[in-house]
Amino acid sequence: MRARLVVFPVKGRNWCFSRSIDPSLEEAASSLTPSTLKHLWKKISSSSNSSAKNVELVMDFASNKMNKAWMGLEKAPEGTIKNKLHGLGLKLLSRVKPSEIFLKSISKEVSSVEITYPSSLNARLVRRRLRHIAMRGAAIHKKYFYGSVMLLPLSSALAVLPLPNIPFFWFLFRSYSNWRALQGSEKLLQLVSDCSYAENPAAPKGSEPESEESKHKFHSSQDSLWVLQPSKDLQELLDKHAEGNGLNDTAISDICKTFSLNATDVSKFRHSM
After folding, report:
1. pLDDT band, residue 90 (cuts 50/70/90)
2. What mean pLDDT comes out for the span 111-132?
3. Span 55-67, pLDDT tens digits
4. pLDDT higher at 7 or 28
5. What is the mean pLDDT of the chain?
6. Which residue ranges make up each domain of the chain?
């Protein structure tokens, strides 16, 4: 499956990295996730999956349950305890960095990426920035994952209190989120580190080194793991709303509508470090 990644500057040296939303793919992925414990056990016991695959099934099952519980809190009447818990959850979620959300979107099913970026940017710089966010994410989220897992037993002790064990569910969510971001980091690094164009068999021996443009043309084949796609439309939207303080809400909204991005996630990149 090929994923479309959109990369562009949002404010100063802050760049946005986001994946285009495809509702049909999200529905297909959710349909493969076990919905009940019986279904989960049947998949684990009857299949010849590896232990890593079974762990992934359990993690996806737990995530699906947490998402359903979250939707229940969202629909709770105003002023109720569930409604207040939802408000607290929103405050906690606002602290999640946008780079983590982006890395989590690079699922195991992604086999190649099409990287859309403003036509004025250097293609080599765009790829370098993607490799940097993948390498940094792999190091950071591995550390955070182990830290969150270590805090789970301590927070589970709070279950004796007659209140919802918010710390336990928060660290459970953080464990899952960091694990998914770690997997996405490693997958993205694998994809954008492919250098098959360096072995271009069509290039005659002793010829001049390939220009960046010729490398781009060769690497845009169907067999490539990554394709750099400069976009004049994206460049025009950036030029139209160019300001000294970065992109405004109108610019982000227009870009998100054109390239099917999540406006809330894109806006966070303006203030990320």
Report:
1. confident
2. 93
3. 666 666 666 666 6
4. 7
5. 78
6. 2-268
Mean pLDDT value of segment 209-224? 49
Q: How crowded is residue 249: how many other Cβ atoms within 10 Å of its Cβ?
A: 11
Write a three-state SS string for the chain. Answer: CEEEEEEEEEECCEEEEEECCCHHHHHHHHHHCCCCHHHHHHHHHHCCCCHHHHHHHHHHHHHHHHHHHHHHHHCCCCCCHHHHHHHHHHHHHCCCCHHHHHHHCCCCCCCEEEEEEECCCCHHHHHHHHHHHHHHHHHHHHHHHHHHHHHHHHHHHHHHCCCCCHHHHHHHHHHHHHHHHHHHHHHHHHHHCCCHHHHCCCCCCCCCCCCHHHHHHHHCCCCCCEEEEEEHHHHHHHHHCCCCCCCCHHHHHHHHHHHCCCHHHHHHCCCCC
